[in-house]
Amino acid sequence: MSLGCDAPGANLLPLVTTDAAVARLERLLSETGRAPSETLLAFDADGTLWSGDVGIDNFEALLEEGAVLPAAASTLREEATACGLPLAADPTAQARILYQSYELGAYSEDRAFRMMAYVFAGYRAEEVRRLAAEVARATGLRDRLHREVLPIVAWASRRGVLRYVVSASHAVVVESSIEQIGLPIDGIFAMAQIEEEGRFSTRIVEPATYGAGKTAALSAGVQGKALLGAFGDSGFDLHLLRAARLAVAVRPKPELRARAAECGGLVELAPLPG
């Protein structure tokens, strides 16, 4: 996967319309001289395809039900000990302590996102998939879609350009969420738990899809293909954005705006009302 967008740029994000972004992608596709099936677009999920975070939605649902299983208990306690946080005997209570520390800024985001994936230890994949479908419906995920991104996904689908989602949320949660909204996505790289005897363990497939791990997972999975465009909303999407020929911020968070100079050529997709 070829790298681009590495030169320093101004700490400003020029706005581009959806039509303009599609036109640029069409031109880049032509310039590669490759068949569309040898190129791809990569989308972060949470905050980029939709507002909010499906990983957090499902994690909070698990906490609300008090449904963290004993299979996750020892790893959660080890994590709390490593981070100097209070211990709890109940696995749901321990997960809640870690989450509250994350919300207070006392528990790092990369560790928190990994924890919010392996907390499903002991569950079967189909159980997590059903939960994610229920949560997607209950939280109105379809209504949270960012409409300015959808024509870009549709263009890529028509042209035969591959569409991948690269997310720090739980892989099965992301897969189920995308199924619920019917997006034409070719593949997903996300926080995937290793299964043991048909149930999830607390081990995460490496590289974990956070920060540079997003790019590493995508590169390993689509070897030799050209990354035409990448779409993200936060600072931990920067590594993936820098790997693309066209880097697009979607409703960017303040940290991404502040770090725009780290990705020369970064543009912001103009949001659509409603």
List keywords for this structure.
274 residues; alpha/beta; Rossmann fold; 2 domains; 7-stranded parallel sheet; two-stranded antiparallel sheet; 11 helices
Question: What is the count of DSSP helices, taking H or I runs of 4+ residues?
Answer: 11
CATH architectural name of the largest domain: 3-Layer(aba) Sandwich
The 3D shape can be described as globular
Low-confidence stretches: 2-10
Helix content class = 40-55%
- Report the biggest beta sheet as strand number plus sense, adding barrel if it closes: 7 strands, parallel
Strand order of the largest sheet: 1-9-8-7-2-3-4
- Strands, count: 9
Name of the CATH class of the largest domain: Alpha Beta
Q: CATH homologous superfamily of the largest domain - what is it?
A: HAD superfamily/HAD-like
Mean pLDDT: 95
What does this structure look like?
This protein starts with 14 loop residues before the first strand and ends in a 5-residue tail after the last strand. Strand 8, helix 11 and strand 9 form a beta-alpha-beta unit. It has helices at residues 18-32, 54-64, 73-82, 91-103, 109-118, 125-138, 150-159, 171-181, 212-221, 238-242, 254-258, and strands at residues 15-16, 39-43, 162-170, 187-191, 193-196, 199-204, 226-232, 246-250, 267-269. The protein is α/β, with parallel strands linked by helices. The protein is built from eleven helices and nine strands. It is 42% helix and 17% strand. The strands form two sheets. Strands 1-9-8-7-2-3-4 form a seven-stranded parallel β-sheet, with helices on both faces. A two-stranded antiparallel sheet has the order 5-6. Residues 2-10 have low confidence and may be disordered.
